[in-house]
Amino acid sequence: MSDRSHVLAVTVAAGLLLAPAVAGAQAENWTAPRTAWGSPDLQGVWDFRTITPMERPADLATDVLTDAEAARLEAEVRAAQEARDSETPFDTVGNYNQFWFDPGTTVVDTRRTSLVVDPPDGRIPARTPEAQARYEAGTEAGRGLRRHTPTPGGFVEDLGPGGVQVRCILGFNSGPPMTPGGYNQNMQLLQTPDHVVIFNEMIHNARIVPLDGSAHGDIPQWVGDSRGRWDGDTLVVETVNFHRETAFQSGLTGSSLTLVERFTLAAPGVLLYQVTVDDPTVWTRPWTYELPMQRNDLPLYEYACHEGNYGIYNILAGARDNPESNILTPEQAAEEAARR
Predict the structure, then answer these.
(1) Element (H, E) at 274
(2) Which of 12, 49, 229, 313 has the smallest number of CB atoms closer than 10 Å to its CB?
(3) CA-to-CA distance for 249 and 252, rounded, in angstroms?
(4) Is 30 part of a structural domain of the chain?
(5) How confident is the prediction for the chain on average, in pLDDT?
(6) Going by DSSP bridges, is the β-strand pair 234-240/44-47 parallel, antiparallel, or unpaired?
(7) 178 closest CA partner among 200, 159, 203, 204
(8) How far apart are CA 135 and CA 115, in angstroms?
(9) Do residues 247 and 163 lie in contact, with contact meaning Cβ atoms separated by under 8 Å?
(10) How many separate domains does the chain show?
(11) Please, which residues have CB within 8 angstroms of residue 121's CB and are 6 or more apart in sequence?
């Protein structure tokens, strides 16, 4: 995604919101389908596109939009996307054009102003002083560079503001946990009596989650070590033992992160995804967000990140021939700083 397009998309989305579907919207007399062995059948491809921001915009005092406000914001998003579709692709080495982007255009029925549901103000809790210092240091190191440009001298350990997504280690929206992004916003669930597979379109990563009550392993992994259980009709997945940061929240989290993900069929064709995030090295308290996923009847296709690793070679070669392509103008730098 081009940095100009990314900045524009985030700027537009910052004033938009979408509310997750909740159990209260469940159809009357509807019963969740079951597998042959009696568990709720969550299987299928689920689309988590949304134009809502993670946090409630600071200038909004309410947690719900009116119908008229929601309709106006959806129209603004569609107009902005149509305008970007008509643009000449931004001159950035390795950039996609608008054909590849699919950020979504609609809000959900309940029209919440943030995905965050706890704290009640819809805002992510304050960072710890140490995490804030790391965030500021990373922002300063990347000042004037594009999002996917490694900071000076770094490409293995120091991955730059784009984090692990630059090297196609983890997807920027697949986490875990999953969050809305610019494209590849599909996840497939597969079930057996004793396992669940969470298969993300982005970076085609599959988490195989045991349901047998076994203890967590002790080997750190990029996507952590997951164990699942049923809480009534809700699948609960707890993940610990992260190797280091993920792409979540600008890569601030690390090996201390604990995730509790909850998957519930809230209505026909709606899977409610609720996540509680707890990393005491980053935030002063745990926090929770909800994201409704819509059933997608289409299959997943392989996402070949870096196109078989030819992309890395060609991007680096192009950057050497056109070094100015990875340097921001003062105006672009100001927009990028505001976004971070």
Answers:
(1) strand 270-278
(2) 313
(3) 6
(4) no
(5) 81
(6) unpaired
(7) 200
(8) 22
(9) yes
(10) 1
(11) 56
* Distance in angstroms (rounded) separating the CA atoms of residues 40 and 169: 32
Share of the chain above pLDDT 70, in %: 72
Within-domain flag for 182: yes
The first and second tokens of residue 72, run together, are 């106006």
Decide: 45 and 296 in contact? Cβ < 8 Å.
yes
pLDDT one-digit tens code per residue, 288-307: 999 999 999 999 988 877 65
Residue 6 confidence (pLDDT) above 50? no
In the block, tokens 């940061």 appear at: 245
- Does residue 122 lie in a domain region? yes
For residue 165, what is the DSSP state? Answer: G
Using the predicted structure, report yes or no on whether residue 340 has a pLDDT greater than 70.
no
Residue that is written with structure tokens 């509680």 in the block: 276
AA letter at 139: T
What residues make up the domain containing 48? 3-25+35-339
DSSP 284: S
Integer Cα distance of 1 and 7 in angstroms: 10
The letter for the amino acid at 312 is I
User: 183: closest CA among 106, 247, 248, 102?
Assistant: 102
Report residue 150: phi and psi, to 5°. Answer: -60, 145
Rounded to an integer, what distance in angstroms lies between the CA atom of residue 188 and that of residue 305?
18
Give the mean model confidence (pLDDT) for residues 107-129.
Answer: 91
Q: What is the CA radius of gyration of the chain?
A: 20
Q: Which helix (H) or strand (E) holds 225?
A: strand 225-231
Does any domain span residue 220? yes
